Amino acid sequence: MRGFTVLSAAAVAALMTSAAFGADLMMTPPAPAEAMTDGFAWDGLYGGISVGYDTTGDAELKGVVGVNLLPAESFLIGIEGGLGYYFDVGNGGGNGVYTTVGARAGFISGPALYYLTAGAWYDVTYGGPVYGFVGGGVEFAVGDNTSIQLQAVYYPSYGDSDVTASLLWHMH
Fold first, then answer.
1. Would you say 81 and 48 are in contact if contact means Cβ atoms under 8 Å apart?
2. Residue 159, φ and ψ in degrees, nearest 5
3. In the Cβ-directed half-sphere of 156, how many Cα atoms lie within 13 Å?
4. One-letter-per-residue 3-state SS of the chain
5. Are 139 and 148 spatial neighbours (Cβ–Cβ below 8 Å)?
6. pTM as predicted
7. Other beta carbons within 10 Å of 21
8. Counting Cβ atoms within 10 Å, is residue 91 exposed (0-12), middle (13-18) or buried (19+)?
9. Taking every pair of C-alpha atoms in the chain, what is the biggest distance, in angstroms?
C-alpha cells in the first residue's frame, strides 16, 4: 500500500510541474503576408493576352494592361484596360475593334486571386453607346511572374455574357 501512495504522489507532482513548463513555451509568430501568397507579387503593373467567346456568337482576342495595389494584407484592388478584336464564328454578325476599361477588387488565398469586376466596353468600329459590364473571376499564379485568369462578365444593357481566359505577365 505504501508503494501505491508514493507512486500516486510522484504522479501528482509530475502533473503539477508539467503545467508550469507548458506556460514557458514560445509561440511561433504568424507567417508574413508574402508567405500567404506563395511568394507571388500580385501588386504592380501587368499585361497579357485574352481569348474569349460571347453569347452573341463572337470570338475575341484582346491585349490587356493593368495595375494592382494591395491596400491590406490579402486584399487587392486594380484597374485594367484592353484593346481587342471580335469576329463572328458562324452567327452572321460582323467583325470589329473594341476597347474596355474596368476596375476589380478581390482577395488572395494561396496562389489564387478571387475578384469581382465592373467597367465599360466600347465598339470602336461601329461606334454607338458605351456598355457597362459586371462580373467576376479567378486568377492563378503559375510561375514567378506569370498567371492565368478565367473571367465571366455580363452586359446588362443588352443581355450578353462573355467568358474569357487570359495569360498575364506581372512586372515586378
1. no
2. 70, 25
3. 6
4. CHHHHHHHHHHHHHHHHHHHHHCCCCCCCCCCHHHHCCCCCCCEEEEEEEEEEECCCEEEEEEEEEEEEEEECCEEEEEEEEEEEEEECCCCCCCEEEEEEEEEEEEEECCEEEEEEEEEEEECCCCCCCEEEEEEEEEEECCCCEEEEEEEEEECCCCEEEEEEEEEEEEC
5. yes
6. 0.76
7. 8
8. exposed
9. 101
Grid cell for residue 94: 460582323
Residue corresponding to grid cell 510541474:
17
- Mean pLDDT over 100-114 rounds to 97
Q: Which amino acid makes up residue 151? A: Q
Across the chain, mean pLDDT equals 84
Percent of the chain at pLDDT > 90 equals: 65
How would you classify the pairing of strands 58-72 and 44-54? antiparallel
